[in-house]
Known about the structure:
By secondary structure, the protein is an alpha/beta fold. Helices cover 27% and strands 26% of the residues. The protein has helices spanning 30-45, 57-69, 89-92, 112-115, 125-131, 164-170, 176-187, 234-246, 296-307, 319-322; strands at 12-18, 49-54, 77-81, 95-99, 102-109, 138-146, 153-154, 159-163, 191-195, 213-217, 220-224, 256-260, 267-268, 271-272, 281-283, 286-291, 312-317, 333-336.
Amino acid sequence: MALRFPAEWEPQSAILLAWPHEGTDWADRLDSVEKTYVALTAAIAAHQTAVVCVADEPLQRRARIALERGGVRLDRVRFVQASYDDTWLRDSGPITLVGPDGFRLLDFRFTGWGGKFEAARDDRLVEQLEAAGLFRNATRQRIDFALEGGGIETDGAGTLLTTWRCMHERHPHASRDGLSHTLAHHLHQNRVLWLDHGHLEGDDTDAHIDTLARFAAPDAIVYQGCDDPDDSHYPELQAMAAELAALRTRHGHPYRLFALPWARPIIDEGRRLAASYANFLIINGAVLMPAYGDPADAGAAAVMARAFPDRKIVQVPCRPLIWQNGSLHCVTMQLPIGLLA
Length: 341
């Protein structure tokens, strides 16, 4: 069966997310982060189904009440019970390949971003969702290789974009050629593009690509810029911009590049938080964009509108999410059209 890794902008069945609860790292700020989850779920449900993981029946009741109060279309919300350590489903959820005869759910080993956090339940999440009957016409493939969905970007046509910093941290003894081969083999890609620069303070993923640079089309990349020479990020993000300018499409042309504006520093409890506009989510007919209550939010939305002229740009308030070092894309995973049972 010829398998393919679809781009995020291709038609979707649903968006998968997990509701925060007191047993996750959100416990200290549960009320504020729940408001973000209500806004996020509402934005998804305006266009397609949202599949919400819940730890148990009481949490499902709590989530349903919050969504009802938020005016969310509950006919487009589906709950599924599973146990999870935290809610970063971009990294613990299934990476789905599509083929002429069905789907393959790639279940890579999830290590809590290189052993930084407990991840045993998250590492079993795809298996749990399969056992719950969430998917149709799909085969799960367990792969003994540490990889997170936030660490890779595909154009849907065989090109993968990733960062050396992240992959080298997960696999310190592997060469770049070796990692390129492994990624291309498992993800059915025919070329891998690497970025050596780009990192955000407050990011504990070791420079996931989805905080830095994202495909908007096979010939277009949206990336997090920094135009403040006095900011500590300026050298790295300028170097990353130069790397992106040097990349070529499979046809040998430069990519069309869209630089996102830079938000002012957000400091919480003495540490800087990773407020990246590149952590957006593409859904059916829209792009959900993280907003941080910053003047740059409007500029970021304008850039997104140019990069995605055929989609509605929807701002979702994500300031509570970055307290835990991630944003909108990090807490979601798209399910390709036809995958949902």
